[in-house]
Design a protein that fits this description.
CATH superfamily: Histidine kinase-like ATPase, C-terminal domain
Number of helices: 3
Number of domains: 1
Bound molecules: adenosine-5'-triphosphate, magnesium ion
Number of strands: 4
Strand content: 25-35%
Radius of gyration: 17 Å
Largest sheet: 4 strands, antiparallel
Shape: globular
Structural class: alpha+beta
Order of helices and strands: HEEHHEE
Helix content: 25-40%
C-alpha cells in the first residue's frame, strides 16, 4: 500500500505544476484544475511468484487536468528524466517529476501524460495500486 504522505506529496506536486502552467497561459480564459479519482478493480497485472500466474489487482487512477500551456508531445517522456549535472545540490535534490515517478513505481504504480495540447491544457494520470476490493 502506498504511504498516505507519499500520496499527498504526489498530488500536491502535480497541482503546483498545474497552477504554474495556468499562470503562464494568459491566452486561455478558463483557469481550471480538475482532479478525478477512479477505482479500477483490475488495473494492475502482477506476476505471482508462487503460482507463476498473472493476477489482476485493484488500483486507483488519479487524473489531474489543467488548462495551462500544454506540453509538446516530444516532451511527454523527457519531463520524467533526471538531470544529474548542473545546478546546486538543493536543486539536484528537489522534488521533481522524475522523483515522483520513482516513488510511484516503488509502489508498482505509474505516472504519465495522457493528453496535452496548447488549446486544452494537460492531463496527468497516476495509477496507485490498492488492496483488492471484495464485492
Ligand atoms: N501541468 C503542466 N503543464 C505544462 N508543463 C508542465 C506541467 N507539469 C510539468 N510540466 C513541465 O515539466 C517540467 C518538469 O516539471 P517538474 O515539476 O519536474 O520541475 P519544475 O516544475 O520545472 O521545477 P519545480 O517543480 O522545482 O518548480 C516543467 O518545467 C514543465 O516544463
Ligand atoms: Mg514543478
Amino acid at each position: 500500500m502506498a504511504d498516505r504522505t507519499d500520496i499527498y506529496t504526489i498530488i500536491a506536486h502535480l497541482i503546483k505544476n498545474a497552477a504554474e502552467s495556468i499562470e503562464k497561459n494568459a491566452a486561455l480564459n478558463a483557469r481550471e484544475i480538475r482532479i478525478e479519482t477512479v477505482l479500477n478493480d483490475s488495473a494492475i497485472s502482477v506476476l505471482s511468484k508462487d503460482s507463476g500466474m498473472v493476477q489482476k489487482q485493484a488500483a486507483i487512477a488519479v487524473l489531474v487536468k489543467d488548462t495551462g500551456t500544454g506540453i509538446p508531445t516530444e516532451q511527454w517522456e523527457s519531463i520524467f528524466e533526471q538531470y544529474l549535472s548542473g545546478g546546486t545540490t538543493a536543486q539536484r535534490h528537489r522534488m521533481s517529476l522524475s522523483i515522483l515517478r520513482k516513488i510511484i513505481r516503488y509502489y508498482y504504480g505509474d505516472i504519465s501524460v495522457v493528453s496535452s495540447s496548447p488549446d486544452l491544457g494537460t492531463e496527468f494520470q497516476v495509477i496507485i495500486p490498492c488492496r483488492q476490493v471484495q464485492a
